[in-house]
Write a structure and sequence with these properties.
The complex is a heterodimer of chains A (629) and B (494).
Chain A (H helix, E strand, L loop, with lengths): L15 H19 L3 H15 L3 E7 L5 H9 L15 E6 L4 E7 L7 E6 L4 H7 L9 E8 L2 H4 L2 E5 L9 H10 L4 E7 L6 H13 L3 E6 L7 H14 L5 E4 L2 H10 L2 H7 L1 H47 L4 H19 L4 H38 L2 H47 L2 H6 L23 H7 L6 H15 L5 H4 L13 H69 L2 H43 L1
Helix pairs in contact in A: 1-2, 1-11, 1-20, 2-11, 3-9, 6-14, 6-17, 9-10, 11-19, 11-20, 12-19, 13-14, 13-19, 14-17, 14-19, 17-19
Chain B lengths: L2 H17 L5 H14 L4 E7 L5 H9 L16 E4 L5 E6 L5 E2 L2 E4 L2 E4 L9 E7 L8 E5 L8 H12 L9 E6 L4 H10 L12 E5 L12 H14 L1 H4 L5 E3 L2 H8 L3 H12 L2 H7 L3 H6 L8 H24 L6 H11 L2 H12 L3 H20 L5 H13 L1 H14 L6 H10 L7 H4 L8 H20 L5 H24 L1
Classes of the chains: A alpha/beta (629), B alpha/beta (494).
Chain lengths: 629, 494
């Protein structure tokens, strides 16, 4: 396989909806430029850039040694994830797009304080971190490895996550992976052709099917197992009996690699990858695209509305001179109000700051409650047994429970953060609604976070506030933010196992007379060890939650302030337009009115087009959702 | 009859005495008699492991006959015993009624047993008697895989290995593992007897099965498998559960022991054909089985070769033939037995199980007796308890077994430099004198004696050193006795 140096070819086939959305966006950008609103031009440019690249996270999961890393490598056509006969992947690897290859790791901070830090690394070194799971020399635990490379399939917006093998549903990794599933857009489950699905694999699939909107099953290594077709049929039978409608795609990763090297199309077809790529592009990417298109159109409508307001103010003032005074005053008031909304004392800001504070303590309290229960149970267990006797069974149990608790805790954080975002956006809208003039500017206002279940798009005649909230900026950093939570959940499972924390415990058979005393000491040591370990994990998780919430707070604030600033500028523009109308010569008036009418007409047409396309996309996405469910 | 077996018979007598007065004495006595018979029968070795680990395939390889049916899907559904016998016979043991002989056919070599309408759920086990030299030392027991989607199949295996007195049904277990999962270890633990709740590594051997698949069919796959097996052997969690882990490519081993002349001929033709064309064919199983080729081996024959050898086996055989290392089918067979790891496994079975079959049998018999008498409701168990306790505390072999377990679980810790030597001396690498002393098989007897004297002195010093902790000193005393035993045996031999 070649090193990832070749530049990205042009993006994958573009859907008609995206082409249409791009056209509408371009028309709106033209109008904003004509009216000299650089701030709105910038916003549309951002939206258009994001439209080019949907943001979709695909989790590749499965038991040990099923060929997950090989699949990821063959998929992105680069040997990013190390493949070894023996050593298994220890850390989640996130592969995304960049024009030039780059890589970074997230690891625990040096020392004992349990924070997280990020370092850039060489792309070639990524594999070593993935296998060892720690920073050579310092021994810091690596939580995730991130690699961005110029690849066509990634450029289209796919982000592929290679995960450590789950090793059974109840294992710590299994719980962590399960927690991450609900945050991913799609899941590729990998099982090899050597045998039928096992009971635990089927159990995992069943659970994953409930949590993730799109689940594919890749059956690997069909190049070396003569009876793969039979295994596939057996698996289809198992899935059917379990009531799971999951597609099985047979694949052979080495064939894809070889076919690409030798340019052998027939071999490429045999590898099964064309079908897999096609599924990812049609099902996964198009879903992401639908959200993206909808979001871009939301921005368009919003911008057009503001331009429309300026233009109509100008026309009204020109058409009826008696109204000028009134229009200027209204615009002035609107500007005052919009400026006030940018201030720290505004209602939405107060709610945001309080909300983040509450959320911090809620999430913290939730985790502490969970772990307190766990610690109590473990202490009881230790009191009833000799720690040496139960060690090997108890410690994995603690680990599994802890991971389950953390995954639940992250889910809580995610859903509460979405609620808060909705609340803040609602308040912002209320503030706007109190001023009729402002309200007219803002028919559709996109907001920051999307709800975790994604495609809950309402299809109304008028684009409702709720709809724009849901589809709004999801394509912006909503996805990134959500993704930010996926990897750590898996990464945390790589934290040192609890056994290590109390390693010195196992040992020394006590002399008879000392037995009781020694047992007591062992129990104390075991309790202290378990507690210390859990405290450390809680500390790390807390730190990460706090960082995530800080990011949420910053994003929400920045977005809403930017929106208020835009409104203020729109009001200013309207004011200027009204004042300008006073100075317009009678001779120019007719021509000016005509030009304004034409401009307003054009804006309205853009808006109608955007609205109708948005409804269409929402139906497509919603319909697909219904099929998947 | 060894001294140990004689002592166990003493305990059996005491047990008969203990149950003589209870209500269902005749039933219990019959059970005790059955245990007594078992003492003189071949070692019972169960082959267990996750579903599709290759248990039946390995069994066939060990017997050098394709007896147990194998298939790509799940196949073994009933616990089946394969034992040496004077005639070919299959007996069904239903759960609710008396054993009955059932007819069988052989399709493609493997047994097709007619259960006469009885469903698998109602059958406790099948017993296949088969005259075979390979079964004369060991009765092999095939089990349904654990972690099967058909949970009742998994249950049957758990039932079998865990049933009341169940772990006493077998004397030893070959545990097949692919890559180790949490559920494997839990299963391995369930096999171990609960005597004093101490798992012991003494009666199980780990087999890293389907070893050829580890490198995804590459020719150097087996060296990776060896590396992994070695790592597993050193893993503390596995060490306490089995003595050693060895890699075996089961399918290849089975085929090697049952290789046919026509198969060798076909492979020779393939090996002799144009290299580039063959490499293209061997790229994928589908191409090998279906593609047009100039070789005079039909797609149908190629499909059969695939089923028998796997893609790895065909690649390997072609390489061996091309290199001139297999010019006859016998040569190919022995090369493949070696390459598949079957040779090494047979060696381990001899040194680790057969060589101490007395101890293993005595152990499982005592365990079964203890449970039998304990649950019989007998009141006058005084003599029995005393006998069994005396045996446990005085028989040195048991002390060795227990100490090995303690060392492996970390209950007893020796100085780091001593630990490996101690385990070896206790028989972790095999029970023969040179294995215990860590010497080459060719070592002369007086050289071995010298090594034993050295170790004897060393452990004596450790046990008498006032700085040695009490448990370590106890351990050193056991080791000193082991050396004495080796010296006595050595003198007797010379």
């Amino acid at each position: 396989m070649t090193t990832p140096t070749d530049t990205a070819p042009p993006a994958a086939a573009v859907s008609p909806e995206r082409v249409r959305a791009t056209e509408i966006l371009a028309a709106a950008t033209g109008a904003a430029r004509r009216l000299e609103r650089d701030d709105l031009v910038e916003r549309l440019t951002d939206a258009s850039r994001r439209l080019d690249r949907p943001d979709v996270t695909v989790l590749v999961v499965g038991e040990f040694k099923q060929g997950k890393s090989s699949l990821v490598n063959a998929l992105v056509k680069a040997p990013i994830c190390p493949v070894d006969d023996d050593v298994a992947t220890a850390v989640a690897t996130v592969i995304g797009y960049a024009d030039r290859s780059e890589a970074a790791i997230t690891c625990e901070t040096a020392g004992d304080e349990g924070g997280e830090e990020r370092h850039d690394i060489r792309v070639g070194d990524a594999g070593a971190f993935v296998l060892s799971g720690e920073v050579a020399g310092t021994g810091q635990q690596v939580h995730t490895v991130e690699v961005n490379i110029p690849r066509k399939i990634l450029r289209a917006g796919l982000r592929v996550v290679d995960t450590p093998g789950v090793g059974g549903l109840e294992s710590a990794h299994g719980r962590a992976t399960m927690g991450a599933l609900s945050m991913a857009d799609a899941v590729v489950f990998v099982t090899d052709s050597s045998q039928e699905l096992t009971a635990s694999e089927l159990e995992f699939l069943r659970a994953a099917h409930e949590r993730c909107p799109l689940l594919l099953c890749a059956m690997s290594k069909i190049d070396i197992y003569p009876r793969w077709a039979k295994i596939r049929d057996l698996n289809l039978g198992h899935l059917a009996r379990a009531g799971l409608d999951i597609e099985i795609l047979p694949i052979a990763s080495p064939l894809r690699v070889r076919a690409l090297e030798t340019n052998d199309a027939a071999l490429h077809d045999e590898s099964g990858y064309p079908a897999l790529v096609e599924r990812l592009e049609t099902s996964v990417l198009s879903r992401g695209e639908a959200i993206q298109v909808s979001s871009a159109l939301g921005h368009t409508v919003d911008v057009v509305e503001q331009l429309h307001h300026t233009e109509t103010t100008s026309r009204d003032a020109l058409a009826d001179p008696t109204k000028r005074e009134e229009l200027v005053e209204a615009a002035y008031a609107a500007k005052e109000r919009a400026d006030a909304m940018r201030g720290a004392a505004s209602r939405w800001q107060t709610v945001l700051n309080d909300g983040i504070g509450d959320l911090n303590s809620d999430v913290d309290h939730d985790l502490k409650t969970r772990t307190r229960v766990l610690i109590a149970e473990v202490e009881e267990l230790i009191d009833e047994n000799d720690p040496v006797e139960i060690g090997d069974e108890a410690f994995p149990m603690i680990e599994e429970r802890l991971m389950g608790d953390i995954a639940e805790n992250y889910r809580l954080l995610q859903s509460e953060a979405s609620d808060l975002a909705a609340r803040v956006a609602e308040l912002f809208e209320l503030d706007v609604a109190e001023d009729p003039s402002l309200a007219r500017m803002l028919v559709a206002m996109p907001s920051v976070l999307d709800e975790s279940d994604g495609m809950d798009i309402e299809v109304d005649d008028a684009p409702s506030f709720k709809a724009s909230l849901l589809t709004g900026v999801r394509g912006g950093y909503g996805g990134t933010l959500m993704f930010g939570m996926v990897a750590p959940v898996i990464g945390l499972a790589a934290l040192g196992p609890v056994t290590l924390a109390i390693g010195g415990l196992m040992g020394r058979k006590a002399a008879k007379d000392e037995r009781e005393r020694q047992l007591k000491i062992r129990r104390q040591q075991a309790k202290a060890g378990v507690k210390k370990h859990i405290d450390q994990v809680v500390f790390t998780v807390n730190k990460h939650s706090k960082d995530t919430l800080r990011q949420v707070q910053r994003d929400l604030r920045d977005t809403n302030i930017a929106r208020a600033k835009e409104l203020s500028m729109t009001a200013t523009a309207a004011m200027k337009a009204a004042e300008q109308a006073v100075r317009t010569e009678d001779s120019e008036r007719e021509a000016r009115l005509e030009a304004l009418d034409a401009s307003i007409d054009q804006l309205e047409r853009i808006r109608t087009a955007a609205d109708s396309l948005r409804r269409q996309v929402a139906q497509v996405a919603g319909g697909r959702e219904a099929v998947a469910a | 009859m060894s001294a140990l077996t004689g002592q166990v018979e003493g305990v059996l007598d005491a047990a008969r005495h203990a149950v003589a007065d209870i209500g269902d004495a005749s039933i219990r006595t019959a059970e005790i008699d059955a245990l007594a018979t078992r003492l003189h029968q071949p070692l019972r070795v169960a082959i267990a492991g996750k579903v599709k680990a290759g248990k039946s395939t390995l069994l066939n390889a060990l017997v050098s006959e394709r007896l147990a049916p194998t298939d790509a899907g799940e196949c073994t559904t009933i616990v089946t015993w394969y034992r040496d016998g004077s005639t070919y016979r299959v007996t069904m043991h239903p759960k609710a009624s008396d054993p009955v002989q059932v007819p069988f056919r052989r399709t493609d070599g493997s047994l097709d047993i007619d259960l006469r309408g009885t469903t698998g759920d109602d059958v406790e086990r099948l017993e296949v008697e088969w005259p075979s030299a390979a079964l004369s030392d060991m009765t092999l027991i095939d089990t349904p895989g654990i972690d099967s989607i058909s949970t009742h199949l998994s249950d049957r295996t758990h039932e079998f290995l865990n049933a009341d007195g169940g772990s006493a049904v077998t004397d030893a277990v070959l545990y097949l593992m692919r890559h180790l999962h949490a559920s494997d270890v839990r299963f391995l633990e369930s096999f171990h007897d609960q005597e004093a709740s101490r798992p012991s590594a003494i009666n199980s051997i780990g087999v890293l099965s389907r070893a050829d698949e580890i490198g995804v069919g590459r020719l150097d796959a087996f060296s990776s498998a060896k590396r992994i097996a070695l790592r597993y052997s050193d893993d503390p969690k596995i060490r306490r559960l089995c003595q050693v882990v060895t890699p075996v490519a089961g399918l290849l081993a089975e085929t090697a022991t049952t290789l046919r002349q026509d198969e060798f001929g076909a492979l020779q033709q393939i090996a002799a054909a144009d290299r580039a064309e063959i490499d293209g064919l061997l790229l994928t199983v589908d191409r090998f089985a279906n593609a047009e080729a100039s070789v005079a081996v039909t797609p149908h024959e190629r499909q059969e070769l695939l089923d028998r050898f796997g893609i790895f086996g065909i690649r390997l055989s072609c390489a061996l033939i091309r290199q001139g290392r297999a010019t006859t089918s016998a040569e190919l067979s022995s090369a493949l037995i070696d390459k598949s790891g079957l040779g090494a496994l047979r060696e381990i079975l001899t040194t680790h199980l057969a060589a101490r079959s007395d101890v293993l049998r005595a152990r499982s018999t005592l365990l079964a007796l203890d449970r039998l008498v304990g649950t019989s409701g007998a009141t006058d168990t005084h003599r029995f308890d005393a006998e069994i306790e005396r045996l446990r505390s005085t028989v040195h072999e048991f002390a060795e077994v227990e100490l090995l377990g303690d060392l492996r679980t970390g209950r007893i810790r020796l100085a780091e430099s001593d630990a490996e030597r101690a385990e070896r001396l206790l028989g972790s690498h095999g029970g023969l004198a040179h294995q215990r002393l860590g010497a080459d098989p060719e070592t002369m007897p007086d050289e071995l004696t010298k090594l034993a004297i050295d170790q004897h002195g060393h452990w004596q010093r450790v046990s008498e050193n006032p700085l040695t902790a009490r448990p370590a000193a106890d351990a050193a005393r056991v080791l000193t006795r082991t050396c004495e035993g080796l010296l006595v045996a050595g003198r007797a031999a010379s």
